[in-house]
Amino acid sequence: MINLPKMKIGIVAVSRDCFPESLSANRRKALVDAYKEMYDEADIYECPITIVESEIHMKEALMDIEENGCNALCVYLGNFGPEIAETMLAQQFDGPVMFCAAAEERSDSLIQGRGDAYCGMLNASYNLKLRNVKAYIPEYPVGDAKYCAKLINEFLPISRALYGIKNLKIISFGPRPQNFFACNAPIKQLYNLGVEIEENSELDLFESFNKHAGDERIPSVVKEMEEELGEGNKKPQILEKLAQYELTLLDWVESHKGSKEFVAIAGKCWPAFQTQFGFVPCYVNSRLTGKGIPVSCEVDIYGCLSEFIGECVSEDVVTLLDINNTVPADMYENDIKGKFDYKFTDTFMGFHCGNTCSKLLCKPEMKYQLIMARSLPVEVTNGTLEGDIKPGEITFYRLQSTSDNHLYAYVAEGEVLPVATKSFGSIGVFAIHEMGRFYRHVLVENGFPHHGAVAFGKYGKALFEVFKYLDVEKVGYNKPENDKYPTENPF
Questions:
Q1: Counting C-beta atoms within 10 Å of the first and last residue's C-beta, which end of the chain has fewer, N or C?
Q2: pLDDT band at 50 (very low <50, low <70, confident <90, very high)
Q3: Cα 265–309–124 angle (5° rounding)?
Q4: Is the pLDDT of residue 193 over 70?
């Protein structure tokens, strides 16, 4: 996939001068060897500075990892560690940072070979707070070489999302449609996160689209679409316009990216889009998201930001869906009850008009937008990609600014069930344990909009850590039945 960060984590070992340097040096080597044995060695870089004990060493290490292309940092306490130098290193490094520490190896080496990094981690955390420095510290940050290698590998998707956010530009077109203000939110928090935003008029987009008429690249994009759709190509007459629109967006991204490395798009799709452009953009949105450039529907700025975060974490395609409708009681009774471990209120349908990538759908077909066609000619509503979403594990999540500029988020893991939806659009039967309570006491209670991002796999742990690192004020999740929400009636 394009448009995603490639991370290299610099591993810097630190040592306090009253401990033998060899403790940290040897433990760092063991850690790096373990990582290379277990994972892709291209993920990491071992800083060759023998050991970091002082501010001078810190500057040398900082220069070395920057010169060697590291965009994330692991500060590794091989022993107690120098609380000043190690936290200054984190402070001066321009990228995501994690801390972890070495456990003691053997009972026969607890005199000259004892490192006390368990203690040092406490002082490191205290000094990070003194300096107002953010760092990822795992749930249990102390262990042997293989365990710490695992921690670094778990930091990889977290660092990818954090680096991506800081280097992201969101390009939006047009205000949200009337009566769809729910996903509207102040852009102030985008700037607080380091995200740049470029807001454009639909007229700007329409002008650019018209200039792409007759673009010599259109036939090759049409052919690519035909190959992707296969037997699902039910609207071949619209592909040329869709290809023209796709090239318009891709060229806009390249010419408007500016100083940022990555881009996401919040697009307009109604009410005037289809009558003026002559189609709906859903299929193009699905294709760009499938390539790695998330495109949200209905100018949902925090929706496309959420999609981008999910793509960084999963390194795979995500989608944006309405938390849309309940599962009919007869469908639950006939197709779910007794076959899957979910209550009726654990289930719902996630839906959008046709924006989900073809690789995520069962038998995808190009169709028209049924809801719009109730009041418009069918021919101007062509361009949706319809099909039931493939069954499997999912993570439903969203990052959102409130109307008064507070950052909230939620994360819930579940699955798409192998149950036919008997409906239209990009749609699936979703199941999340305790969804009913989560719906009421997280989504409704905190004013989240109807759009949610979906990552295809279990990524709750990494997403939760990303939101913590970003200082999100509230991160909601689906609590088990015996764990009450603060607003839940206890009687």
A1: C
A2: low
A3: 140
A4: yes
| 346 contacts 431 by C-beta, under 8 angstroms | yes
Its pTM stands at: 0.95
Report the alpha-carbon distance of residue 349 to residue 326 in Å, rounded.
6
pLDDT score of 17: 76
Supply 280's token pair.
């709906």
Q: Is the pLDDT assigned to residue 407 strictly greater than 80?
A: yes
Measured over the CA atoms of residue 411, residue 417, residue 422 and residue 426, the dihedral's sign is positive
Question: Quick one: average pLDDT of 213-229?
Answer: 97
Tokens of 95: 């990228």
Look at residue 263 and tell me whether its pLDDT is greater than 90.
Answer: yes
Rg (CA), the chain: 25
- Tokens representing 455? 């990552």
H/E/C letters for each residue in the chain?
A: CCCCCCCCEEEEEECCCCCCHHHHHHHHHHHHHHHHHHCCHHHEEECCCCCECCHHHHHHHHHHHHHCCCCEEEEEECCCCCHHHHHHHHHHCCCCEEEEEECCCCHHHCCCCCCCHHHHHHHHHHHHHHCCCCCECCCCCEECHHHHHHHHHHHHHHHHHHHHHHCEEEEEECCCCCCCHHHCCCCHHHHHHCCEEEEECHHHHHHHHHHCCCCCCHHHHHHHHHHHHHHHCCCHHHHHHHHHHHHHHHHHHHHHCCCCCEEEEECCCCCCHHHHHCCCCHHHHHHHHHHCCCEECCCCHHHHHHHHHHHHHHCCCEEEEEEEECCCHHHHHHHHECCECCCHHHEEEEEECCCCCHHHEEEEEEEECHHHHCCCCHHHCEEEEEEEECCEEEEEEEEEECCCCCEEEEEEEEEECCCCCCCCCEEEEEECCCHHHHHHHHHHCCCCCCEEEEECCCCHHHHHHHHHHCCCCEEEECCCCCCCCCCCCCC
64: tokens are: 């070395």
Q: What is the pLDDT of residue 115?
A: 65
Distance CA 472, CA 466 (A): 9
In this predicted model, what pLDDT tens digit does every residue of 118-136 receive, in sequence order?
999 999 999 999 999 999 9
Could you tell me the pLDDT band of residue 39, with boundaries at 50, 70 and 90?
very high
Q: How far apart are CA 44 and CA 163, in angstroms?
A: 15
pLDDT tens-digit profile of 314-362?
999 999 999 999 999 999 999 999 999 999 999 999 999 889 999 999 9
> Distance (Å, rounded) from C-alpha 460 to C-alpha 397?
8
**Residue 177 burial class via C-beta count within 10 angstroms: exposed 0-12, middle 13-18, buried 19 and up:** middle
